[in-house]
Design brief:
By secondary structure, the chain is an alpha+beta fold. It has eight helices and 26 strands. Among the domains are: 30-129, Beta Barrel (Thrombin, subunit H); 317-425, Ubiquitin-like (UB roll); 431-575, no CATH class. The longest helix has 19 residues, at 148-166. The radius of gyration is 29 Å and the shape is elongated.
Length: 577
């Protein structure tokens, strides 16, 4: 016979953010909860004062997730009639006979009644004992390419992974109560995957009033049932997700009752929050919430809750974007995480572009910037992006670069900061190469090669340019070839000539490969000779002795090497105006 039981939390007055434990909270274990029991829950419906609601235990779902059960309760409150379980209530503590039984964390899709699922308190407290490593991904099987199609695929891969990690319920009808996404200064279109993960009607952040009184100690205290927020982006514009505190034990804080992104060990900032009002909605009722001051650091993102520690906040990754022609700067901070940081950087850049430049139509941006990496050379960005997808192309490129660097197989990377200077215009800037003319076709070693180039620009006007190259120092009678083309043309040739899927295993090699990426605003001159050589781990070997070549070719299973028909002797590039 199916056992049925539920539990409620008895709230004690919680501890100060940095004060020692005052009282011990009694808990009621899952085995003590029975169907029909009643209790009281606590949450913030408005402002910072906690309100109460009643509940009745209906039963439980055994092994809701392997090794974990879920208590099913009906919430009873006039404030919840007609609205159901409200987005932002995740983590609301529930008590039976003054004993904490868990946190309201799940709801039922399209339910007409406020029926919720409660995560048992034993599972919540167990999260503090988990110190396994955080999220990591093996990127060695991902082909390292940075063309617009490939970087867009990285974005899709990150979005799908975030969705997968937040879809924790094996029962489609029982879903985690949405956290309340609150933004200030962010266009909904820029949010991308995050827009569907949090309460969709909350794309604004409201403060109740401008309070100019000195801060009190209460700003830095946190109690059960208080609203709390985890900022993902903060600074000149902000995005955070908020829910409810379940339990405070000394400097340990437990909240939400379900995972944030289920990322394991993390370092996210924890802020207090204020509920402005409760908004009933036929689509999705939610609490309108404003993020307040920082009070600590989230250190665990587990299946049963988030666990934080009160005190100092975590190190964030700063990003500065200076719009040169508008003489405007944006200063932001993002959480430091190998999966989230790339996505948040792309969201931030897209938001700046949407807010500052023409949203649709042809656009061009000239970008100069650096990604500062602790203990490693900086990644240099110096390129032009033009066309209807210029903003997205640049944002996706930076996202892909961060994704590969932060998930490199050698070591954990600390990105110190990102700094970009951008000149934008609402016109397209493109040229098509129509003809290349050499002054002759026979050259002595080291002799100057004079080249005339004929272009047609975006207005259809013909433009002529001249440049000079240096003939390679080859044996008399040798033959060499000159390939002239833009980034895409050279990349297509390299893909045909070198069929390896080499991925740099060392971080320094990865940074070098990224810094050597070809640019959109360059014309390349590739001087080559025909050969029967090898490409091995990022390097060309065009004249290997037969014995050494045989050794390399014996390793037929390696995907980091391939035969090549042409060897690059010299390469030049010309920046186009």
């Amino acid at each position: 016979m199916k056992r049925i039981f539920f539990a409620v939390i008895a709230a004690t007055v919680l501890l100060a953010a940095v004060s020692p434990r005052l009282t011990a909270m009694e808990i009621m274990k899952l085995s003590e909860v029975r169907a029909g029991m009643t209790g009281t829950g606590r949450t913030v419906f408005a402002g910072t004062e906690t309100g109460t609601f009643d509940f009745k235990v209906l039963g439980f779902v055994e092994k809701f997730i392997p090794g974990k059960n879920l208590i099913i309760v009906e919430l009873i409150s006039p404030l919840l009639d007609g609205s159901g379980v409200v987005a932002g209530m995740s983590g609301s503590p529930v008590y039976i006979d003054g004993k904490l039984i868990g946190a309201v964390a799940y709801g039922f899709s399209f339910s007409r009644k406020p029926i919720g699922g409660v995560t048992p308190i034993e599972d919540i407290l167990a999260s503090a004992e988990n110190r396994s490593p955080g999220y990591s991904v093996d990127i060695s099987n991902i082909k390292m390419e940075f063309d617009p199609e490939s970087t867009a695929r990285i974005g899709t891969m990150i979005r799908d992974e975030l969705v997968r990690r937040t879809t924790t319920s094996p029962i489609p009808e029982i879903v985690p109560i949405q956290l309340l996404g609150a933004s200030r200064g962010i266009h909904p279109q820029a949010l991308g995957p995050l827009q569907t993960m949090f309460a969709p009607a909350s794309s604004l952040q409201v403060t109740r009033a401008l309070d100019r009184t000195p801060p009190s100690d209460e700003l830095f205290r946190i109690h059960p049932a208080d609203a709390a927020a985890v900022p993902l982006i903060r600074g000149d514009f902000e995005y955070s997700a908020s829910g409810t505190v379940t339990h405070v034990d000394g400097n340990k804080v437990y909240l939400f009752g379900h995972p944030f992104f289920n990322l394991g060990t993390v370092n996210f900032p924890l802020h207090k929050a204020e509920v402005v009002t409760l908004v009933p909605s036929y689509q999705n009722s939610f609490r309108l919430t404003a993020s307040k001051n920082q009070i600590g650091t989230v250190i665990q993102d587990r299946i049963s809750c988030l666990q934080a520690e009160l005190g100092d906040g975590p190190a964030m990754i700063p990003m500065k974007v200076f719009l040169k022609r508008r003489n405007r700067s944006f200063n932001l901070e993002m959480i430091d995480h190998p999966l989230l940081t790339p996505a948040l950087t792309a969201i931030s850049l897209e938001n700046i572009f949407i807010s500052e430049y023409q949203q649709y139509g042809f656009n061009s941006i000239r970008v100069q910037g650096r990604v500062f990496i602790e203990g490693e050379k900086n990644i240099i960005i110096d390129d032009l992006f033009s066309g209807t997808s210029a903003f997205t192309e640049f944002s996706n490129l930076i996202m892909a670069i961060q994704y590969f660097v932060m998930n490199n197989p050698e070591r954990r990377v600390k990105i110190q900061k990102l700094d970009f200077e951008i000149s934008g215009s609402e016109v397209v800037r493109r040229s098509r190469l129509e003809n290349v003319i050499l002054d002759k076709n026979v050259y002595a070693p080291g002799e100057t090669i004079r080249v005339k180039l004929h272009f047609r620009n975006e207005r259809g006007n013909q433009v002529a340019e001249e440049t000079s190259l240096r003939a390679p120092s080859l044996k008399p009678g040798s033959e060499f070839f000159i390939l002239v083309g833009d980034k895409d043309e050279i990349m297509r040739f390299d893909a045909k000539n070198n069929k390896s899927e080499y991925f740099p295993a060392r971080l320094s090699h990865l940074v070098r490969a990224i810094n050597n990426l070809r640019k959109n605003n360059r014309l390349y001159f590739k001087l080559m000779t025909s050969t029967s050589g090898l490409f091995v781990s990022g390097f060309e070997y065009s004249h290997l002795p037969p014995s050494m070549k045989s050794v390399f070719e014996y390793n037929t299973e390696s995907n980091s090497q391939s035969r090549i028909r042409f060897s690059t002797v010299m390469e030049y590039q010309m920046e186009l105006p």
